[in-house]
Protein backbone atom coordinates (compact mmCIF):
# COMPACT_ATOMS: atom_id res chain seq x y z
CA UNK A 1 0.00 0.00 0.00
CA UNK A 2 1.40 3.37 -0.94
CA UNK A 3 1.52 6.28 1.46
CA UNK A 4 2.04 9.89 0.78
CA UNK A 5 3.44 11.89 3.63
CA UNK A 6 2.41 15.48 3.37
CA UNK A 7 4.77 18.22 4.54
CA UNK A 8 2.42 19.10 7.38
CA UNK A 9 2.86 15.63 8.82
CA UNK A 10 -0.39 14.28 7.54
CA UNK A 11 -0.04 10.77 6.23
CA UNK A 12 -2.40 10.12 3.36
CA UNK A 13 -3.18 6.65 2.19
CA UNK A 14 -3.04 6.40 -1.58
CA UNK A 15 -5.59 3.88 -2.61
CA UNK A 16 -8.77 3.52 -4.61
CA UNK A 17 -10.99 3.68 -1.55
CA UNK A 18 -11.81 6.85 0.27
CA UNK A 19 -8.53 8.08 1.77
CA UNK A 20 -8.16 7.69 5.51
CA UNK A 21 -6.07 10.44 7.02
CA UNK A 22 -3.75 9.74 9.93
CA UNK A 23 -1.85 12.44 11.76
CA UNK A 24 1.80 11.79 12.58
CA UNK A 25 3.58 14.59 14.39
CA UNK A 26 6.89 15.85 13.10
CA UNK A 27 8.68 14.82 16.29
CA UNK A 28 7.14 11.35 16.18
CA UNK A 29 8.24 10.94 12.58
CA UNK A 30 11.85 11.92 13.37
CA UNK A 31 11.88 9.54 16.32
CA UNK A 32 10.64 6.73 14.06
CA UNK A 33 13.38 7.47 11.52
CA UNK A 34 15.93 7.26 14.32
CA UNK A 35 14.52 3.98 15.68
CA UNK A 36 14.66 2.35 12.24
CA UNK A 37 18.44 2.89 12.21
CA UNK A 38 19.55 -0.10 14.33
CA UNK A 39 23.19 0.99 14.49
CA UNK A 40 22.22 4.40 15.84
CA UNK A 41 19.98 2.81 18.47
CA UNK A 42 22.91 0.61 19.48
CA UNK A 43 24.96 3.79 19.87
CA UNK A 44 22.25 5.30 22.09
CA UNK A 45 22.16 2.21 24.33
CA UNK A 46 25.96 2.20 24.60
CA UNK A 47 25.97 5.88 25.59
CA UNK A 48 23.30 5.22 28.22
CA UNK A 49 25.31 2.24 29.52
CA UNK A 50 28.52 4.26 29.82
CA UNK A 51 26.68 7.11 31.56
CA UNK A 52 25.07 4.69 34.06
CA UNK A 53 28.42 2.97 34.73
CA UNK A 54 30.09 6.32 35.30
CA UNK A 55 27.38 7.61 37.64
CA UNK A 56 27.14 4.31 39.46
CA UNK A 57 30.92 3.90 39.84
CA UNK A 58 30.96 4.14 43.67
CA UNK A 59 28.33 1.38 43.97
CA UNK A 60 29.37 -0.87 41.08
CA UNK A 61 33.08 -0.96 41.81
CA UNK A 62 33.77 -3.21 44.77
CA UNK A 63 37.15 -1.61 45.41
CA UNK A 64 38.48 1.90 45.84
CA UNK A 65 40.29 3.21 42.75
CA UNK A 66 43.06 4.83 44.79
CA UNK A 67 43.84 2.20 47.45
CA UNK A 68 47.12 0.48 46.74
CA UNK A 69 47.82 -3.20 47.28
CA UNK A 70 51.57 -3.47 46.56
CA UNK A 71 51.74 -7.18 47.37
CA UNK A 72 49.44 -8.01 44.46
CA UNK A 73 50.70 -5.47 41.96
CA UNK A 74 50.32 -6.31 38.27
CA UNK A 75 47.95 -9.20 39.09
CA UNK A 76 46.44 -10.66 35.93
CA UNK A 77 42.71 -10.38 35.19
CA UNK A 78 40.66 -13.22 36.63
CA UNK A 79 38.01 -14.09 39.17
CA UNK A 80 39.74 -12.40 42.07
CA UNK A 81 40.84 -9.26 40.21
CA UNK A 82 38.23 -8.73 37.51
CA UNK A 83 40.39 -6.75 35.10
CA UNK A 84 43.67 -7.11 36.96
CA UNK A 85 45.66 -4.69 39.09
CA UNK A 86 48.04 -1.93 38.04
CA UNK A 87 51.63 -0.98 38.92
CA UNK A 88 50.64 0.06 42.44
CA UNK A 89 48.22 -2.80 42.93
CA UNK A 90 45.15 -0.62 42.34
CA UNK A 91 42.01 -2.24 40.96
CA UNK A 92 41.79 -1.57 37.21
CA UNK A 93 38.02 -2.16 37.02
CA UNK A 94 37.34 0.46 39.69
CA UNK A 95 39.75 2.90 38.04
CA UNK A 96 38.08 2.39 34.66
CA UNK A 97 34.66 3.28 36.08
CA UNK A 98 35.88 6.39 37.90
CA UNK A 99 37.79 7.46 34.79
CA UNK A 100 34.58 7.11 32.76
CA UNK A 101 33.12 9.78 35.01
CA UNK A 102 35.95 12.19 34.18
CA UNK A 103 35.87 11.43 30.45
CA UNK A 104 32.14 12.10 30.25
CA UNK A 105 32.31 15.29 32.30
CA UNK A 106 35.19 16.61 30.19
CA UNK A 107 33.54 15.49 26.95
CA UNK A 108 30.12 16.98 27.66
CA UNK A 109 31.27 20.17 29.40
CA UNK A 110 33.84 21.05 26.75
CA UNK A 111 31.28 20.54 23.99
CA UNK A 112 28.84 22.69 25.95
CA UNK A 113 31.46 25.40 26.35
CA UNK A 114 32.83 25.17 22.81
CA UNK A 115 29.30 24.94 21.42
CA UNK A 116 28.05 28.01 23.29
CA UNK A 117 31.11 30.00 22.26
CA UNK A 118 31.12 28.80 18.66
CA UNK A 119 27.36 29.10 18.12
CA UNK A 120 27.35 32.65 19.49
CA UNK A 121 30.26 33.68 17.29
CA UNK A 122 28.78 31.94 14.25
CA UNK A 123 25.38 33.61 14.74
CA UNK A 124 26.92 37.04 15.16
CA UNK A 125 29.25 36.60 12.17
CA UNK A 126 26.52 35.23 9.93
CA UNK A 127 23.88 37.78 10.81
CA UNK A 128 25.86 40.98 11.16
CA UNK A 129 28.12 40.56 8.12
CA UNK A 130 30.73 43.16 7.17
CA UNK A 131 33.88 43.70 9.21
CA UNK A 132 32.76 41.71 12.23
CA UNK A 133 32.01 38.70 10.06
CA UNK A 134 35.36 39.00 8.34
CA UNK A 135 37.27 39.23 11.60
CA UNK A 136 35.51 36.27 13.24
CA UNK A 137 35.64 34.00 10.24
CA UNK A 138 39.31 34.70 9.45
CA UNK A 139 40.15 33.82 13.06
CA UNK A 140 38.13 30.63 12.66
CA UNK A 141 40.00 29.80 9.45
CA UNK A 142 43.36 30.26 11.15
CA UNK A 143 42.39 28.12 14.14
CA UNK A 144 41.04 25.38 11.89
CA UNK A 145 44.13 25.39 9.69
CA UNK A 146 46.15 24.20 12.65
CA UNK A 147 46.17 20.78 14.32
CA UNK A 148 43.80 21.29 17.24
CA UNK A 149 45.68 18.72 19.29
CA UNK A 150 48.89 20.75 19.10
CA UNK A 151 47.08 23.93 20.07
CA UNK A 152 45.44 22.12 22.99
CA UNK A 153 48.81 20.77 24.11
CA UNK A 154 50.33 24.25 24.12
CA UNK A 155 47.40 25.84 25.92
CA UNK A 156 47.38 23.14 28.61
CA UNK A 157 51.16 23.21 28.97
CA UNK A 158 50.93 26.87 29.90
CA UNK A 159 47.68 26.71 31.92
CA UNK A 160 48.80 23.81 34.11
CA UNK A 161 46.77 20.85 35.28
CA UNK A 162 43.16 20.56 36.43
CA UNK A 163 39.89 19.25 35.06
CA UNK A 164 38.49 22.76 34.50
CA UNK A 165 41.56 23.73 32.48
CA UNK A 166 41.20 20.60 30.39
CA UNK A 167 37.57 21.57 29.66
CA UNK A 168 38.62 25.11 28.79
CA UNK A 169 41.38 23.95 26.41
CA UNK A 170 39.20 21.42 24.58
CA UNK A 171 36.23 23.81 24.52
CA UNK A 172 38.34 26.47 22.81
CA UNK A 173 39.67 23.89 20.35
CA UNK A 174 36.14 22.85 19.33
CA UNK A 175 34.55 26.29 19.08
CA UNK A 176 35.80 27.27 15.57
CA UNK A 177 34.22 24.18 14.03
CA UNK A 178 30.82 25.06 15.59
CA UNK A 179 31.21 28.67 14.46
CA UNK A 180 31.84 27.64 10.87
CA UNK A 181 28.72 25.45 10.56
CA UNK A 182 26.45 27.94 12.35
CA UNK A 183 27.81 30.81 10.25
CA UNK A 184 26.96 29.01 7.02
CA UNK A 185 23.45 28.14 8.18
CA UNK A 186 22.76 31.64 9.46
CA UNK A 187 23.83 33.15 6.15
CA UNK A 188 21.21 31.21 4.25
CA UNK A 189 18.48 31.54 6.90
CA UNK A 190 18.71 35.31 7.19
CA UNK A 191 17.65 35.70 3.55
CA UNK A 192 14.44 33.75 4.13
CA UNK A 193 11.07 35.45 4.12
CA UNK A 194 10.14 34.78 7.72
CA UNK A 195 13.30 36.51 8.92
CA UNK A 196 12.63 39.41 6.61
CA UNK A 197 9.10 39.61 7.97
CA UNK A 198 10.41 39.71 11.52
CA UNK A 199 12.80 42.49 10.55
CA UNK A 200 9.95 44.42 8.94
CA UNK A 201 7.80 44.44 12.05
CA UNK A 202 10.80 45.85 13.88
CA UNK A 203 12.11 42.88 15.85
CA UNK A 204 15.51 43.46 17.41
CA UNK A 205 18.56 41.55 16.21
CA UNK A 206 18.93 39.50 19.39
CA UNK A 207 15.27 38.48 19.20
CA UNK A 208 15.56 37.46 15.54
CA UNK A 209 18.61 35.36 16.27
CA UNK A 210 17.04 33.72 19.34
CA UNK A 211 13.48 33.12 18.14
CA UNK A 212 13.80 32.78 14.37
CA UNK A 213 17.27 31.55 13.51
CA UNK A 214 18.56 29.52 16.46
CA UNK A 215 15.64 27.04 16.60
CA UNK A 216 16.16 26.29 12.92
CA UNK A 217 19.76 25.25 13.35
CA UNK A 218 19.28 23.40 16.63
CA UNK A 219 19.14 20.06 14.84
CA UNK A 220 22.52 20.54 13.20
CA UNK A 221 24.00 21.72 16.49
CA UNK A 222 22.72 18.59 18.22
CA UNK A 223 24.30 16.38 15.56
CA UNK A 224 27.62 18.21 15.78
CA UNK A 225 27.45 18.19 19.57
CA UNK A 226 27.18 14.45 19.72
CA UNK A 227 29.89 13.83 17.10
CA UNK A 228 32.22 16.27 18.83
CA UNK A 229 31.57 14.81 22.24
CA UNK A 230 33.21 11.76 20.71
CA UNK A 231 36.13 13.90 19.51
CA UNK A 232 36.41 15.65 22.88
CA UNK A 233 36.68 12.33 24.73
CA UNK A 234 39.36 11.17 22.28
CA UNK A 235 41.27 14.45 22.65
CA UNK A 236 41.08 14.21 26.44
CA UNK A 237 42.56 10.72 26.23
CA UNK A 238 45.36 12.02 23.99
CA UNK A 239 46.17 14.91 26.32
CA UNK A 240 46.19 12.87 29.49
CA UNK A 241 48.23 10.18 27.73
CA UNK A 242 50.89 12.84 27.12
CA UNK A 243 50.73 13.70 30.82
CA UNK A 244 48.78 16.94 30.60
CA UNK A 245 45.54 18.01 32.21
CA UNK A 246 44.45 15.72 34.99
CA UNK A 247 47.29 14.60 37.17
CA UNK A 248 47.67 11.23 38.91
CA UNK A 249 46.54 9.59 41.13
CA UNK A 250 43.11 10.61 39.72
CA UNK A 251 42.46 7.95 37.06
CA UNK A 252 41.71 8.87 33.46
CA UNK A 253 41.75 6.42 30.58
CA UNK A 254 44.63 8.33 29.01
CA UNK A 255 46.89 8.36 32.06
CA UNK A 256 46.08 4.71 32.82
CA UNK A 257 47.42 3.80 29.35
CA UNK A 258 50.40 6.07 29.93
CA UNK A 259 51.25 4.26 33.18
CA UNK A 260 50.55 0.88 31.64
CA UNK A 261 52.58 1.40 28.47
CA UNK A 262 55.76 0.68 30.44
CA UNK A 263 54.48 -2.83 31.15
CA UNK A 264 53.34 -3.83 27.67
CA UNK A 265 55.60 -6.89 27.76
CA UNK A 266 54.59 -8.35 31.12
CA UNK A 267 51.17 -6.84 31.82
CA UNK A 268 49.46 -5.64 28.61
CA UNK A 269 46.02 -5.52 30.31
CA UNK A 270 47.08 -2.29 32.02
CA UNK A 271 46.80 -0.50 28.67
CA UNK A 272 44.43 -2.73 26.73
CA UNK A 273 41.33 -2.28 28.94
CA UNK A 274 41.39 1.53 29.22
CA UNK A 275 41.96 1.73 25.46
CA UNK A 276 38.96 -0.51 24.89
CA UNK A 277 36.90 1.77 27.12
CA UNK A 278 37.91 4.81 25.03
CA UNK A 279 37.14 2.97 21.81
CA UNK A 280 33.67 1.84 22.91
CA UNK A 281 32.68 5.23 24.35
CA UNK A 282 33.90 7.26 21.39
CA UNK A 283 32.33 4.80 18.97
CA UNK A 284 29.02 5.04 20.85
CA UNK A 285 28.87 8.83 20.50
CA UNK A 286 29.91 8.58 16.84
CA UNK A 287 27.15 6.05 16.10
CA UNK A 288 24.61 8.21 17.91
CA UNK A 289 25.76 11.31 16.02
CA UNK A 290 25.60 9.51 12.67
CA UNK A 291 22.04 8.40 13.44
CA UNK A 292 20.98 11.88 14.50
CA UNK A 293 22.44 13.27 11.30
CA UNK A 294 20.30 10.94 9.25
CA UNK A 295 17.26 12.24 11.12
CA UNK A 296 17.97 15.97 11.04
CA UNK A 297 19.96 16.58 7.90
CA UNK A 298 21.00 13.71 5.69
CA UNK A 299 22.99 16.06 3.48
CA UNK A 300 25.16 17.44 6.26
CA UNK A 301 28.68 16.38 5.36
CA UNK A 302 31.37 16.30 7.98
CA UNK B 1 49.50 27.40 -13.33
CA UNK B 2 52.48 29.56 -12.28
CA UNK B 3 50.17 32.41 -11.39
CA UNK B 4 47.99 30.07 -9.35
CA UNK B 5 51.02 28.81 -7.41
CA UNK B 6 52.22 32.33 -6.64
CA UNK B 7 48.72 33.36 -5.59
CA UNK B 8 48.50 30.42 -3.18
CA UNK B 9 51.97 31.12 -1.81
CA UNK B 10 51.08 34.71 -1.05
CA UNK B 11 47.77 33.83 0.55
CA UNK B 12 49.45 31.40 2.99
CA UNK B 13 51.65 34.14 4.45
CA UNK B 14 48.92 35.82 6.55
CA UNK B 15 47.85 32.45 7.98
CA UNK B 16 51.45 31.67 8.89
CA UNK B 17 51.88 35.03 10.64
CA UNK B 18 48.54 34.70 12.43
CA UNK B 19 49.40 31.28 13.86
CA UNK B 20 52.83 32.53 14.95
CA UNK B 21 51.07 35.38 16.75
CA UNK B 22 48.71 32.96 18.47
CA UNK B 23 51.66 30.82 19.63
CA UNK B 24 53.40 33.93 20.92
CA UNK B 25 50.30 35.05 22.81
CA UNK B 26 49.44 31.63 24.27
CA UNK B 27 52.79 31.41 26.02
CA UNK B 28 52.61 34.96 27.36
CA UNK B 29 49.02 36.04 27.89
CA UNK B 30 47.45 32.97 29.47
CA UNK B 31 47.42 32.99 33.26
CA UNK B 32 50.47 31.09 34.44
CA UNK B 33 53.94 32.53 34.12
CA UNK B 34 56.47 30.47 32.14
CA UNK B 35 59.28 31.48 34.48
CA UNK B 36 57.40 30.43 37.63
CA UNK B 37 56.24 27.26 35.89
CA UNK B 38 59.81 26.43 34.85
CA UNK B 39 61.25 26.93 38.33
CA UNK B 40 58.37 25.43 40.31
CA UNK B 41 56.09 26.98 42.92
CA UNK B 42 58.72 27.17 45.63
CA UNK B 43 61.34 29.20 43.70
CA UNK B 44 62.46 32.45 45.27
CA UNK B 45 61.14 35.71 43.86
CA UNK B 46 64.59 36.88 42.78
CA UNK B 47 65.27 33.64 40.86
CA UNK B 48 61.97 34.00 39.00
CA UNK B 49 62.77 37.65 38.20
CA UNK B 50 66.23 36.72 36.94
CA UNK B 51 64.77 34.06 34.64
CA UNK B 52 62.10 36.46 33.41
CA UNK B 53 64.82 38.95 32.44
CA UNK B 54 66.82 36.21 30.76
CA UNK B 55 63.77 35.10 28.75
CA UNK B 56 62.95 38.71 27.89
CA UNK B 57 59.57 38.41 29.65
CA UNK B 58 60.12 41.68 31.58
CA UNK B 59 59.99 43.77 28.40
CA UNK B 60 56.71 45.29 27.16
CA UNK B 61 54.63 42.89 25.08
CA UNK B 62 55.00 44.69 21.69
CA UNK B 63 58.81 44.71 22.06
CA UNK B 64 58.77 41.00 22.91
CA UNK B 65 56.63 40.38 19.84
CA UNK B 66 59.06 42.30 17.64
CA UNK B 67 62.04 40.39 19.11
CA UNK B 68 60.26 37.09 18.53
CA UNK B 69 59.40 37.83 14.91
CA UNK B 70 62.83 39.31 14.08
CA UNK B 71 64.62 36.30 15.54
CA UNK B 72 62.42 33.97 13.47
CA UNK B 73 63.10 36.01 10.36
CA UNK B 74 66.81 35.41 10.96
CA UNK B 75 66.10 31.71 11.34
CA UNK B 76 66.99 31.88 15.03
CA UNK B 77 64.82 29.53 17.13
CA UNK B 78 66.49 30.53 20.39
CA UNK B 79 68.17 28.43 23.04
CA UNK B 80 66.72 25.70 25.19
CA UNK B 81 65.87 27.04 28.67
CA UNK B 82 67.04 23.80 30.23
CA UNK B 83 70.19 22.88 28.31
CA UNK B 84 71.21 26.27 26.94
CA UNK B 85 71.97 24.78 23.54
CA UNK B 86 70.55 26.19 20.27
CA UNK B 87 67.20 24.50 19.60
CA UNK B 88 67.76 24.38 15.85
CA UNK B 89 70.50 21.73 16.24
CA UNK B 90 68.20 19.33 18.03
CA UNK B 91 65.36 20.05 15.60
CA UNK B 92 67.53 19.29 12.58
CA UNK B 93 68.58 16.02 14.18
CA UNK B 94 65.02 14.71 14.71
CA UNK B 95 63.29 16.35 11.74
CA UNK B 96 64.07 13.56 9.20
CA UNK B 97 62.34 11.03 11.48
CA UNK B 98 59.16 13.10 11.74
CA UNK B 99 59.19 13.88 8.02
CA UNK B 100 59.47 10.25 6.95
CA UNK B 101 56.79 9.21 9.45
CA UNK B 102 54.33 11.90 8.34
CA UNK B 103 54.94 11.21 4.67
CA UNK B 104 54.63 7.43 5.01
CA UNK B 105 51.46 7.84 7.09
CA UNK B 106 49.78 10.06 4.50
CA UNK B 107 50.85 7.70 1.71
CA UNK B 108 49.33 4.68 3.47
CA UNK B 109 46.15 6.61 4.26
CA UNK B 110 45.60 7.65 0.65
CA UNK B 111 46.73 4.45 -1.07
CA UNK B 112 44.64 2.26 1.24
CA UNK B 113 41.69 4.58 1.83
CA UNK B 114 40.67 5.43 -1.73
CA UNK B 115 40.57 1.82 -3.10
CA UNK B 116 38.72 0.64 0.02
CA UNK B 117 36.15 3.41 -0.28
CA UNK B 118 35.64 2.77 -3.99
CA UNK B 119 35.27 -0.96 -3.38
CA UNK B 120 32.70 -0.37 -0.62
CA UNK B 121 30.72 1.97 -2.88
CA UNK B 122 30.67 -0.56 -5.71
CA UNK B 123 29.59 -3.32 -3.30
CA UNK B 124 27.00 -1.04 -1.71
CA UNK B 125 24.85 -2.71 0.97
CA UNK B 126 26.66 -6.02 0.59
CA UNK B 127 28.67 -7.72 3.31
CA UNK B 128 31.96 -6.05 2.29
CA UNK B 129 30.32 -2.64 2.56
CA UNK B 130 28.91 -3.28 6.04
CA UNK B 131 32.19 -4.66 7.35
CA UNK B 132 34.06 -1.75 5.79
CA UNK B 133 31.72 0.82 7.35
CA UNK B 134 32.02 -0.64 10.83
CA UNK B 135 35.81 -0.87 10.63
CA UNK B 136 35.95 2.65 9.26
CA UNK B 137 33.85 4.03 12.13
CA UNK B 138 36.01 2.14 14.62
CA UNK B 139 39.06 3.70 12.95
CA UNK B 140 37.55 7.14 13.50
CA UNK B 141 36.98 6.31 17.16
CA UNK B 142 40.31 4.82 18.15
CA UNK B 143 43.02 7.16 19.46
CA UNK B 144 46.19 6.74 17.37
CA UNK B 145 48.35 5.85 20.35
CA UNK B 146 46.04 2.98 21.32
CA UNK B 147 46.10 1.58 17.80
CA UNK B 148 49.90 1.87 18.07
CA UNK B 149 49.85 -0.19 21.26
CA UNK B 150 47.68 -2.88 19.67
CA UNK B 151 49.94 -3.10 16.59
CA UNK B 152 52.98 -3.24 18.84
CA UNK B 153 51.46 -6.02 20.95
CA UNK B 154 50.67 -8.04 17.84
CA UNK B 155 53.61 -7.50 15.48
CA UNK B 156 56.46 -6.65 17.82
CA UNK B 157 55.71 -8.60 21.01
CA UNK B 158 53.57 -11.60 20.00
CA UNK B 159 54.87 -12.29 16.47
CA UNK B 160 58.24 -10.50 16.87
CA UNK B 161 58.33 -9.55 13.22
CA UNK B 162 59.26 -5.91 13.73
CA UNK B 163 61.10 -3.84 16.32
CA UNK B 164 58.83 -2.24 18.94
CA UNK B 165 60.62 0.97 19.82
CA UNK B 166 63.17 3.45 18.51
CA UNK B 167 63.71 5.15 15.18
CA UNK B 168 66.50 3.11 13.61
CA UNK B 169 69.62 4.53 11.98
CA UNK B 170 68.84 7.08 9.29
CA UNK B 171 71.96 5.93 7.41
CA UNK B 172 70.88 2.27 7.40
CA UNK B 173 67.82 1.95 5.11
CA UNK B 174 66.76 -1.53 6.28
CA UNK B 175 67.03 -0.70 9.97
CA UNK B 176 65.30 2.61 9.37
CA UNK B 177 62.44 1.08 7.39
CA UNK B 178 61.73 -1.76 9.81
CA UNK B 179 61.43 0.83 12.58
CA UNK B 180 59.17 2.95 10.41
CA UNK B 181 56.58 0.30 9.51
CA UNK B 182 54.54 0.13 12.74
CA UNK B 183 54.35 3.88 13.54
CA UNK B 184 53.57 4.70 9.91
CA UNK B 185 50.91 2.00 9.83
CA UNK B 186 49.38 3.44 13.02
CA UNK B 187 48.99 6.90 11.53
CA UNK B 188 48.13 5.55 8.08
CA UNK B 189 45.30 3.32 9.32
CA UNK B 190 43.70 6.14 11.33
CA UNK B 191 43.75 8.28 8.19
CA UNK B 192 42.53 5.38 6.05
CA UNK B 193 39.30 5.33 8.06
CA UNK B 194 38.45 8.95 7.18
CA UNK B 195 39.59 8.65 3.57
CA UNK B 196 37.64 5.45 2.92
CA UNK B 197 34.48 6.91 4.48
CA UNK B 198 34.53 9.97 2.28
CA UNK B 199 35.68 8.05 -0.82
CA UNK B 200 32.66 5.76 -0.39
CA UNK B 201 30.12 8.56 -0.16
CA UNK B 202 31.76 10.56 -2.96
CA UNK B 203 31.69 7.50 -5.22
CA UNK B 204 28.04 6.75 -4.39
CA UNK B 205 27.22 10.32 -5.26
CA UNK B 206 28.92 10.10 -8.64
CA UNK B 207 27.74 6.60 -9.54
CA UNK B 208 24.13 7.73 -9.56
CA UNK B 209 24.76 10.50 -12.09
CA UNK B 210 23.56 10.47 -15.67
CA UNK B 211 26.92 10.48 -17.40
CA UNK B 212 27.89 7.28 -15.58
CA UNK B 213 24.68 5.66 -16.79
CA UNK B 214 25.50 6.86 -20.31
CA UNK B 215 28.96 5.32 -20.07
CA UNK B 216 27.40 2.03 -19.01
CA UNK B 217 24.74 2.37 -21.66
CA UNK B 218 27.21 2.65 -24.48
CA UNK B 219 28.66 -0.66 -23.37
CA UNK B 220 31.86 0.28 -21.57
CA UNK B 221 33.39 -2.34 -19.32
CA UNK B 222 32.44 -1.84 -15.65
CA UNK B 223 36.11 -1.27 -14.62
CA UNK B 224 36.45 1.46 -17.23
CA UNK B 225 33.26 3.10 -16.01
CA UNK B 226 34.33 3.06 -12.38
CA UNK B 227 38.01 3.92 -12.76
CA UNK B 228 37.85 6.07 -15.88
CA UNK B 229 34.62 7.98 -15.43
CA UNK B 230 33.37 7.85 -11.86
CA UNK B 231 36.59 7.90 -9.85
CA UNK B 232 37.92 10.95 -11.68
CA UNK B 233 35.19 13.23 -10.42
CA UNK B 234 34.91 11.48 -7.06
CA UNK B 235 38.56 12.37 -6.48
CA UNK B 236 37.77 16.08 -6.29
CA UNK B 237 36.03 16.12 -2.88
CA UNK B 238 38.54 13.55 -1.60
CA UNK B 239 41.57 15.62 -2.58
CA UNK B 240 40.02 18.76 -1.12
CA UNK B 241 40.06 17.12 2.32
CA UNK B 242 43.48 15.44 2.16
CA UNK B 243 45.06 18.57 3.61
CA UNK B 244 42.73 18.50 6.64
CA UNK B 245 43.39 14.81 7.28
CA UNK B 246 47.13 15.29 6.90
CA UNK B 247 47.01 18.07 9.49
CA UNK B 248 45.15 15.97 12.02
CA UNK B 249 47.65 13.19 11.28
CA UNK B 250 50.40 15.59 12.43
CA UNK B 251 48.55 16.00 15.72
CA UNK B 252 48.40 12.23 16.12
CA UNK B 253 52.07 11.85 15.23
CA UNK B 254 52.96 13.37 18.62
CA UNK B 255 51.46 10.53 20.66
CA UNK B 256 52.59 7.95 18.10
CA UNK B 257 56.20 9.06 18.47
CA UNK B 258 55.85 8.86 22.22
CA UNK B 259 54.39 5.36 22.29
CA UNK B 260 57.04 3.99 19.89
CA UNK B 261 59.80 5.94 21.69
CA UNK B 262 60.76 7.28 18.26
CA UNK B 263 62.94 10.35 17.93
CA UNK B 264 61.02 13.22 16.35
CA UNK B 265 59.47 16.64 16.82
CA UNK B 266 56.51 15.29 18.76
CA UNK B 267 58.64 13.42 21.27
CA UNK B 268 60.84 16.49 21.58
CA UNK B 269 57.74 18.59 22.20
CA UNK B 270 56.44 16.32 24.96
CA UNK B 271 59.93 16.32 26.48
CA UNK B 272 59.92 20.13 26.43
CA UNK B 273 56.50 20.20 28.14
CA UNK B 274 57.48 17.78 30.89
CA UNK B 275 60.70 19.74 31.52
CA UNK B 276 58.77 23.00 31.24
CA UNK B 277 61.13 24.27 28.57
CA UNK B 278 58.94 27.04 27.13
CA UNK B 279 61.42 28.41 24.60
CA UNK B 280 61.80 24.93 23.12
CA UNK B 281 58.01 24.39 23.14
CA UNK B 282 57.47 27.69 21.35
CA UNK B 283 60.10 26.90 18.72
CA UNK B 284 58.77 23.42 18.05
CA UNK B 285 55.30 24.90 17.54
CA UNK B 286 56.82 27.31 15.00
CA UNK B 287 58.32 24.38 13.08
CA UNK B 288 54.97 22.56 13.16
CA UNK B 289 53.28 25.71 11.85
CA UNK B 290 55.67 25.72 8.92
CA UNK B 291 54.79 22.07 8.35
CA UNK B 292 51.07 22.81 8.33
CA UNK B 293 51.43 25.75 5.97
CA UNK B 294 53.40 23.59 3.52
CA UNK B 295 50.78 20.83 3.72
CA UNK B 296 47.92 23.29 3.13
CA UNK B 297 49.81 24.71 0.19
CA UNK B 298 50.54 21.36 -1.42
CA UNK B 299 46.95 20.26 -0.87
CA UNK B 300 45.75 23.38 -2.67
CA UNK B 301 48.17 22.75 -5.54
CA UNK B 302 47.12 19.11 -5.94
CA UNK B 303 43.53 20.30 -5.85
CA UNK B 304 44.32 22.69 -8.71
CA UNK B 305 45.71 19.78 -10.72
CA UNK B 306 42.77 17.46 -10.09
CA UNK B 307 40.09 20.07 -10.64
CA UNK B 308 41.03 22.41 -13.53
CA UNK B 309 38.10 24.71 -12.69
CA UNK B 310 39.94 25.88 -9.55
CA UNK B 311 42.87 27.36 -11.46
CA UNK B 312 40.75 29.76 -13.46
Structure, explained:
The complex is a heterodimer of chains A (302) and B (312). Chain A is mainly alpha-helical and 302 residues long. In chain A, 68% of the residues lie in helices and 4% in strands. Chain A has one domain: MetI-like (MetI-like fold). A three-stranded antiparallel beta sheet of chain A has the order 1-2-3, with no helix packed on it. In chain A, a hairpin with a 4-residue loop joins strand 1 and strand 2. In chain A, helix 2 crosses helix 11 and helix 5 crosses helix 7. The longest helix of chain A has 38 residues. Chain A is globular and about 75 Å long. The model of chain A has no long low-confidence stretch (mean pLDDT 83). Chain B has 312 residues and is an all-alpha fold. Chain B folds into two domains: 46 residues, no CATH class; 221 residues, MetI-like fold. The model of chain B has no long low-confidence stretch (mean pLDDT 85). Classes of the chains: A mainly alpha (302), B mainly alpha (312). At the A-B interface, helix 5, helix 6, helix 9 and helix 11 of A face helix 1, helix 6, helix 7, helix 10 and helix 11 of B.
Q: Number of folding domains of chain B?
A: 2
Briefly note the structural class of the backbone of chain B: mainly alpha
The total count of helices of chain B amounts to 13
CATH superfamily of the largest domain in chain B: MetI-like
Highlighted features:
heterodimer; A: 302 residues; mainly alpha; three-stranded antiparallel sheet; 3 strands; B: 312 residues; MetI-like fold; 13 helices; 79% helix; globular
Short overview:
The complex is a heterodimer of chains A (302) and B (312). Chain A has eleven helices and three strands; from the N terminus they run βββααααααααααα.
